[in-house]
Amino acid sequence: MRNVKNLDIEKSIQNKKLIFEENWLDKLDTITNYLIFIAFIFFSILCLKEIKSSPNNLLEYFILIFVIIFSLYGLFCKLSEKHLKKIKFSINKEDAKQRILEFAKKNNYRISKIANNLIFLNQPNDSSNLGFGNYEKTTFIFIEDNYLLFTLMKEGFRLNPPVLFSQYIINLELKKILKRKTT
User: What pTM was computed for the model?
Assistant: First the structure.
């Protein structure tokens, strides 16, 4: 689980952004991520300039443009990882909280903190994704009366990479369980 020392719940909800004290390692990690993505973009652009125009270079252009787009997307994800996404629902707050906890248990999340309006769901992954090795995704969920705010953050062994696609999947899953009618 990501270390979120002194998480300010009220300010986080008010600003729709996680607000907590970051230690110097977290700040260094963020800067390292930024530098990696910027380096990929910079060197891909340099390589694009060096390619001689020819009909046989289509694959080179495709690969370099893909690297640039992927790096821009990764940079965007890292820049916006603390921003909370909003999901509206029409059920009461306690029912929403109960449905989220049932969803978490069913999908083998480790529930590490349940407060008045805050739930931390942790999902360990032990694969070698892009060389990042073992990491854990933490979903921060703030529940209010008719909506919830959430975000996902990864914690890796050496580097905390951005969450690239999981936030869209969890967004769809949360919307689905909060709109579902009970029988």
Answer: 0.82
